[in-house]
Amino acid sequence: MSEAAHAGWVAGLRNLRPRRWDAISAVVVALLVLPELKPRHGGPAGVAFDLAFAVPLLWRSRWPFPVFIATAGIAFVQWISGMRVLGDLALLIALYTVASREDRRTALTAAAILEVGVILALGRWFQGAHIRSFIGLSGLVAAAGILGQNIRNRRQLLESLRERAARLELERDQQGKLAAAEERARIARELHDVVAHNLTVMIALADGAGYTLRDDPDEAAHALDTASRTGRLALAEMRRLLGVLREGSDGLTLDRDPQPGVPEIDRLVEHVRAAGLPVSYRVSPNARALPDGIQLTLFRIVQEALTNTLKHAGPSATAEVELTAGERDVRLSITDSGPITTPPNGNGGSGLRGMQERASVYSGVVEAGPRPEGGWRVAARLPLPAVGAEREPA
Fold it and tell me: Alpha-carbon distance 125 to 83, whole Å?
């Protein structure tokens, strides 16, 4: 037989169902009746005992210990009758099954019962060869128990490996879902910041153009031109953001513009000024050298705060933006002089929540609320990582 054929034959045996193995073991024990049919052997009584040993083995996989007790009871009746039969092999098969499918205490109990049977058999049928027979029969009992225990340990190991693989697969799927949810939340924040801010500026410019269209057509044309440029900027940012979701045919992400940071706050302030909101802006020079992720967070906070000022503070409001970067943290303050004294959108809105979520990525905090002298204030503080430490979140 070739090595491949032998491996296939072994694999076929392993794949047999337990009930089929039960039937095979019962047939093997039942075939032991053939020697009993010869003269000077057990005769009809021996055949009956062999068949009695074989029948319970049909259910040994389903009820291992009860089947063992049944075979032990048959063996005890056999001992009382004084008849020796080959069907005693069923006792070893039943012990193996108990050791391979039950806990260790049950297996030891079965082995102890069978060992008592060995001692009883020695006293009745093996006079004059007790030591040698005891060693041989006890060795068979130990071999059946050890073999069954090894099979049980192997089965438990395979089950634990399957459970671990299933658990790892489930954890991988959950991590994938969490990563996808986090990415969706990030994209939602970006879309909110881009769309809300630019639309607010465009609405303000369009309103201003409508008011000045008759009295100052040139100013109205300038406002409409600024609104057009703001719309194109918003469209470019939307394309850049959606480019994150697309991949080329070679599996590489498409090229996209850099994320906005502290240098782009100057342009943002100019757009807000063009929309009719006077804004003063002060920034420390070292703030332009912050990590890219922190710069994006600061830009989005300023963008959201000024957008809220445009929408809620009124036409006579003014705003101040101050950005200071120290050695340990960076502080951002946006204040306005509008009359608002309650949070926008009642509970702070998705914009304020978005600012807090962005800051929390870098262990920062954002506080927003009315000022005692009137208007609204947004304050953010983001701690800076130590020099040489990882500065960007994974």
Answer: 10
Rounded Cα distance, 294 and 287, in Å: 10
Rounded CA-CA distance 25/143 in Å is 17
Average pLDDT of the segment spanning 212-232:
73
Cβ partners under 8 Å of residue 94, min gap 6: 56, 57, 60, 64, 67, 68, 71, 72, 110
Which of 3-17, 43-57, 101-115 is predicted most confidently? 101-115
Torsion sign, CA atoms 13, 17, 22, 23? negative
Distances (CA, A) of 217 to 68, 134, 271: 104, 118, 20
Specify the DSSP class assigned to residue 318: -
Question: What residue spans define the domains of the chain?
Answer: 3-125, 276-394
CB 262 within 8 A of CB 298: yes
Task: Determine phi and psi for 128, rounding to 5 degrees.
Answer: 90, -10
DSSP bridge pairs for 282: 322
Burial 172-203 (b: 16+ CB within 10 A, else e): eeeeeeeeeeeeeebeebbebbbebbbebbbe
The pTM of this model reads 0.45
Q: Give me the residue label for tokens 């005692």.
A: 372
CATH number, span 276-394 = 3.30.565.10
Q: What is the pLDDT of residues 179-199, one digit of tens each?
A: 767 767 766 676 666 666 666
Q: How far apart are CA 139 and CA 99, in angstroms?
A: 15
Q: In whole angstroms, give the CA distance from residue 174 to residue 241.
A: 25
